[in-house]
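Hey,
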Amino acid sequence: MSLEDISLEQRDQLAMLMKDLSDNPTTRKETLKLVKQLRPSMSVPELDLEEKTNSALEQMRAENEKIRGELMEARQLESLEKKRAKLIANGKARNDEDIKEIEKVMLEKRIPDHETAAEYWDWMKQSAEPTPTGYNPSALGKFDLSKYMKNPIGAARNEAAAALNELRGNRRPIGI
C-alpha cells in the first residue's frame, strides 16, 4: 500500500497518529525504535546517542568488574603471603616446602586456617615409638624376675604403679 492509493483524509489521519505517537513521552521511544527497525539507514539521533552511551557504559562496567576482580585477587594473594610468612615467623614452618605440606593438609582435611593446619601437621609429624619388626622370642628378658621370686604381690604392685605413673606423665591422648 502506498500513499498514492489512500485518500488525503486517511493520509492526514496517519500523519496525525504518527505525530501523536512521537510527541507522547511514553510512546516516543518505542515509535522511534519501530521507525529505525523499518528503515535502519535512517538517522535517529536520540536512539543512536542512547545506543552509544549504553555501549560505552557496558564497556566501562566490564572493565570495572575486571579491575575489581584483579584487586580482590591481589588482596587475597597478599593475605596468603602474610599467613605463610607468619607461619615461618612463629616457627611452625621452616621453609616453603613445609608450607606446601601444610597447605596440602589444609586441602585434604578441609582445614580453613593456616595456624590450625600447621598445628595439625606438626602433630602428624610426631611419630609414635616404632614397633619392633620381626619376632622377639623372649619378652621375659625385659623384666627383672628376681623381684617376683622374692615377693610376687609387691613386685606386681610396684610394676602397676610404674605403669600408672608413666600413663599419667604422658600428656598425649591414648591411642594417638
